[in-house]
Amino acid sequence: MQAYRKRAKRGFSLVELLAVVLVLAVLAAVAVPLYISQRKSAAGRACKANIAAIANAASAYALRNGAYPATGAAVWSSKLVGANEGLAKWPACPLGADYTCTTNADGSAEIACPNDGAHAGFGGAAGDWTVDLAKPGADSLP
Predict the structure, then answer these.
(1) Domain containing 21: what range?
(2) CA gap 29, 14 in Å, rounded
(3) What is the pTM of this model?
(4) Has residue 103 been placed in a domain?
């Protein structure tokens, strides 16, 4: 009997293990939604930066050539990627779609993200992921 009482306890009790699991569950319940929200917000900011880069390259192209490229992302990417316009490669939306690049009949242009609705609420409202470009020369001072 004496030898049995001197033996030290080993391991954790069931209550201690349940307390640890409960603490981890609470931390996960708080951290996971914040993580998902931050990822969506970062995707929205990256998308806006991509659209701004395309708009800058399109403006440089229009200043050199007097007009924007013809409608279509493939046409725009072939004209804007290269040393002259500043795009090393054609950007893509982080949510996985190609940007819509449209040249209007009046000479203006529009760049839009097809995931506009998915980005809404994470860094802006619906419609914030569309950029309208004025006709080249139309925005000059008198």
Answers:
(1) 12-133
(2) 22
(3) 0.74
(4) yes
